Amino acid sequence: MKTDTTPIVRLEDYRPSDFHIEKVHLDISLHPTETRVISTITLLRNPAGNPSAPLALDGDELVLKSVKIEGEEVSPSDYEATPQSLVIRKFPERVFDLTIETALNPTANTKLMGLYRSNGIYCTQCEAEGFRRITYFLDRPDVMTVYTTRLEADRNDAPVLLGNGNPNERGDVPDSNRHYAIWHDPFPKPAYLFAVVGGNLDHVGKTFKTMSGRDVDIAVYVEKGKGDRADYALDALERSMRWDEQTFGREYDLEVFNVVAVSDFNMGAMENKGLNIFNDKYVLASSETATDGDYAGIESVIAHEYFHNWTGNRITCRDWFQLCLKEGLTVFRDQEFSADERSRPVCRISDIKTLRARQFPEDAGPLAHPVRPPQYSEINNFYTATVYEKGAELVRMLKTLIGADAFRKGMDIYFDSCDGTAATMEDFLGAFEQSSGKDLSHFAKWYGQAGTPHITVKGHYDATAKTYKLDFTQVTQPTPGQPSKEPLVIPVSLGLVTSKGDLPLDCSSVNENGVFVLDKASDSIVFSNVSEEPVPSVFRNFSAPVKVSLELDSKDLLTLLVHDSDPFNRWQAAQTIATRLLVRMVNGEDCKAEIEAFASSLLEFTNETAASDPAFTALVLTMPGESDIIQEIGSDIDPDAIFKSRTILKRILSSVLSPVLVPLYNSLANTGPYSPDAASAGKRSLRNLLLDLIACNNSAEGEKLAQAQIQSATNMTEHFAALSVLSHIPGNARENAFTEFGKRYSNEPLVLDKWFALQAVIPEESVLGRIERLTQNPAYAISNPNRVRAVYGAFAMSNLTQFNRADGKGYDLLADLAIKLDKINPQITARLLTAFGSWRRMNGVRQAHAEAALKRIAAQPDLSRDTSDIVQRSLA
Ligand code: ARG
Ligand code: ZN
């Protein structure tokens, strides 16, 4: 067992930097294995720092070549250098230039942090602490400075040279095969936003005219030969830029904006100033290679990174504890953008599904942490669903609590007062206190308290008095390090629904938008003049990230499904009925008659809604996922029983819906050319769901239709959906389809990723052998994060029965991979291991196997800080 104590960084220990950096000049001479970096930083003491502190710069696996002060070589006896730090005690007590030369090997950099080479392209990833892998620096977000970068490389190897800011000059290096480019970024920024790119790239671009009439050259760079797949990303970028002007009054601020797609990338993308670098999965799209879901993902990640230019870059974070300041807010902004560009209810429901599938389990497990964590040992492990998705919900709640006008005004105040600074959550909330005149100190507790509040609601109708009373209580279970919880401020958006629609709300505790604010452990409100007994519709539009218990019978829930004016609660009503049935089935009840009754209602719903709103219909007909059921049951989970219950529920649904399935499926057949817009995608999503339902109950028919759909498909959405349906039907047709698909796309790694993932989630015992074979595919590479995620990520996160096998072989598969991968890419390893977050919820024998697998990883020598942190917390 590894016992060395990795240092813990604490929010309460924050101190300003002892030094300022006035400016930095970087000279980077790119070479596949011997890149040279000469950094000249202009330094002075920070009056707010410790006046006698030595100059201590951060490094990580650095090779130091020389140190100069004011151009004079410093003798090695006058500094202490290790790969992790450079400490200088003798320097002038005034502004001075420090010049440091380091040597890097981008090809050997498999951690994909700092400067590395991806498929022949030089690129960087500096967030959170990657810049220190390029040169010694004050690598902390509150040290902001102006960067000038000279990039040099072989003309053939890297004809394109990109940096932050605006291009200054470029030219050839005389008497050599090399050339250079100089970039200057006038906006002071922290080191984590630094980036360079060098490579042989294609691009698409255009001129964007900003709201004040300035021209900006915007471009998307991709690997040679893939230029025809960059148009959608460019289009999404242009729409994002326009939206931020119109919605938040935010204009772009440089002369150029470049996006570069690379094939080896740890995360989704990175918002480096003026030079966003992307995982190519979130850039490249053609109708033949990308699904509707991929297009939607590209649109939202392009928007997300672009929006960071204001929420993240112009205003950055004081320290990494404030990560949600930029991430929660920027996710909120990208969600609003997608909702404006597409169907708002469909986007909202999809976002809520993601939150519940990823953040709720996190909040309920060993890795639970507040949106603003109080401490960390490895910051990379806090780029979580809690910081991002729950963080976005907190911003949304804030808007609900103070109203849209005060929210917009508060954003303006925030932009005006914090521009150019490294800010905190307090700065952010302060802007909204100012705009709304409200005290937000109680609301602020959401940022410090982990766990999902559980709200119990009870309704009582008094027919004589014509009043309706709602009783609320809130409870939050303990989380690691937080044994007791306080009541939070919870906006409850609500309505009273009857078969004639919404009743007017006559209650002094509810504002004009139908919002009641619950801020105590329990509270009650009473509505007057309630003419008939209504069904309460609470937490409309998911007005708070909470779990809700409300005793409504199926009849009441069906009233909501049909008559609620709130689309989220219509959808939720069907989900609630289905989840209850599933839980009872897992407990051994036979609910056939009730499922049939529920399915008949869904049949009626489908007949009424399918034509006018296919996307929403598809969401309602999609039964709760395995993770929804796990959360509902809580502990002693039997994955096989959950899988079986879901299968039975879907079969009954399918047989009750059978009169409409095939006709509706046929009527939704594609005509005309492919378009990724939301309306077209909505039709395809319903059609593909119908195919899945057909196959549930009649695998022969399903197989036939799926094969025909593969033959006739004009786009990847249809093609892949049909393959997914086939993947659940064991037999030759499936195996042949897999083989065919694998051959056809053998040179398309992003398409193969779908194929890898689809096979890795087959809920059959033989999947382990299949995974073994997949990893022998020439397209598979353990060094590529997308490949590893496609095979092992999909298996661990989405193959419930096989990852949690009673024989423990699923856990062992992931542990074996983790032990190997940790030496190559710790960040990806740690991320995959979060799949163990629910091990204590599994029943008997599974827990012992999971614990043994985790302990086996923990016992490895030289485990990375990333992996060891996740494993230790999971075992605690
Ligand atoms: N700031 C990026 C985004 O959300 C994420 C980069 C995180 N990278 C990392 N290595 N932790 O847009
Ligand atoms: Zn982000």
UniProtKB/TrEMBL annotation:
Residue intervals of the Aminopeptidase N-like N-terminal domain: 24-193
NCBIfam families referenced in this protein's UniProt entry, alphabetically: pepN_proteo (TIGR02414)
Obligatory cofactor(s): Zn(2+)
InterPro entries, sorted: Aminopeptidase_N-like_N, Aminopeptidase_N-like_N_sf, PepN_Ig-like_sf, Peptidase_M1, Peptidase_M1_dom, Peptidase_M1_pepN, Peptidase_M1_pepN_C, Peptidase_M1_pepN_C_sf
Protein name in the entry: Aminopeptidase N
Domain Peptidase M1 alanyl aminopeptidase C-terminal positions: 555-876
Domain Peptidase M1 membrane alanine aminopeptidase: residue ranges: 232-445
UniProt gene name: pepN
Pfam family, any one: DUF3458
EC number, UniProt record: 3.4.11.2
Organism field: Hohaiivirga grylli
